[in-house]
Amino acid sequence: MSALDAAAAAAPVLAAQPPRERASWLVAAAGALLVAADDLVPLAVEETGLTEPRLRGEIKRTAVQLKLFAEVAAAGEFLDVRLDAADPDFVLGPRPDLRRYLVPLGPVLNFAASNFPFAFSVAGGDTASALAAGCPVVVKAHPGHPRLSDRTAEVLNTALPAGALGVIHGQDEGVAALQDERITAAAFTGSLAGGQALAAIAAARPRPIPFYGELGSLNPVVVTPEALTERAAAIASGFAASVSGSAGQLCTKPGLLFVPSGPAFPASFDAVGPHKLLHPGIVDGYTRRRSEVLGTPGVTVLVEGAVTDDGATPTLVETDLATLLEHRDTLLQEAFGPLSIVVRYTPGEPLGAVLAEVVEGSLTAGVHVAAGEDSPWLHSLVTSLQTLAGRVLFNGWPTGVAVTPAMQHGGPFPAATNPTTTSVGTAAITRFLRPVVYQDAPAALLPEPLRDDNPWHVPQHRSPAGESPSWGSLAG
């Protein structure tokens, strides 16, 4: 049986399982992943070139992610059950008995990422959130770690129901799966060009499906004059760590750092050695973007860096705001690797308005401020940063996405194809659910979450009869 056949057969079985049963699969999967870490991590090192400490931290994060969605499933709040009692005296005329909840879409296709072989791959957040929703998952493995993908699936499938998780390989197979009518939604983390092409395929199907893509991000960070005066060295070292970590192959790497005109920025990349890039395609793309940036008029090299057989070392350049605007077609594109651009601005100029106009949507935006700093200029800047990013950081760096309920990992295009969703945090489950209402249904035909005896013990929000005449009173 193919992965798609198995997923289609499993879909009604998984959808019928109570939330706590779904939670038990995810907890067991997390445990199996941790037990297999000594087997999986060396394989990941071999295929990706990422370091063992980084990968052991990532496998722990992935297990935590699975457990987090186990909590989401067990609580049952994600079903968003709403019960409106029949009301013959409703202010607009008699109201029927209405019972609404969210049901799983069905089989989900997950295009795995190259840069997180655990956390955004076979066992990653897209898989965890879809399983918690009651959807089987077919993962299109990334060609950068094919053996790890298969082995990870084997480990997880010791804990999951039959057909809940399958893996396919190859670009043609991924496109064919995306076009298959049994697939009801797709998630993707990768390049802008690849994501746009797949999104177009999903939209062009006879019955289009939602496509949740994470495509690219510049993640601008602004340093105020007061903050630079207060702690320039600390800002420089934090910036260097954020740009160079995992050779800059992170979707949240700060690609633009805006600092006020004045003394030289204390770049601190001297101790950063070469780090292998994930696969030849990334080497080619990064080398091309680096050459484009270095060849742009008005750009000054602060740290030249290099790309060699041993890997890449960081490249840092500097320019001013006028040059950035003049050469926006070259400079305002993501360089997926250890490269960033320092942009000088004049204190007091409307930087926020400029950023909102020229910088495309990002996963994150940040600002470093001094202790107690506050001004109309700063408020305007923060408001502008909110318009272009899904997460706004203060006095920190965007790398290191917390696995926690309130996290937002998405943003306006091209950060994501859908700015209203997230791929990290508990709200990610909503991507794989749709609402259904039962109207005046006989009690015997109601699904468990909508029954008055509530056999699944999930939260139910009830609207009793007789409330409508008082609607609006809270506004007073």
Give the topology, please.
Layout: H1 3-15, H2 19-35, H3 37-48, H4 52-75, E1 81-84, E2 98-104, E3 108-111, H5 125-133, E4 137-140, H6 146-156, E5 165-168, H7 171-179, E6 185-189, H8 192-204, E7 211-214, E8 221-223, H9 225-244, E9 256-260, H10 280-294, E10 300-303, E11 306-308, E12 311-313, E13 315-320, H11 321-326, H12 328-331, E14 339-345, H13 351-358, E15 362-368, H14 376-388, E16 389-394, E17 433-439, E18 460-463
Parallel strand pairs: 1-18, 3-4, 3-6, 4-5, 6-7, 8-9, 8-15, 9-14, 13-14, 15-16
Antiparallel strand pairs: 1-2, 2-17, 10-13, 11-12
Helix pairs in contact: 2-4, 2-5, 3-4, 3-6, 4-5, 13-14
Structure, explained:
- It is a single chain.
- This protein has helices at 3-15, 19-35, 37-48, 52-75, 125-133, 146-156, 171-179, 192-204, 225-244, 280-294, 321-326, 328-331, 351-358, 376-388, and strands at residues 81-84, 98-104, 108-111, 137-140, 165-168, 185-189, 211-214, 221-223, 256-260, 300-303, 306-308, 311-313, 315-320, 339-345, 362-368, 389-394, 433-439, 460-463.
- It is of the alpha/beta class and 476 residues long.
- The strands form four sheets. Strands 10-13-14-9-8-15-16 form a seven-stranded mixed β-sheet, with helices on both faces. A five-stranded parallel β-sheet has the order 5-4-3-6-7, with helices on both faces. Strands 17-2-1-18 form a four-stranded mixed β-sheet, with no helix packed on it.
- Strand 15, helix 14 (376-388) and strand 16 form a beta-alpha-beta unit.
- Helix 13 runs parallel beside helix 14.
- The radius of gyration is 25 Å and the shape is globular.
- The model has no long low-confidence stretch (mean pLDDT 95).
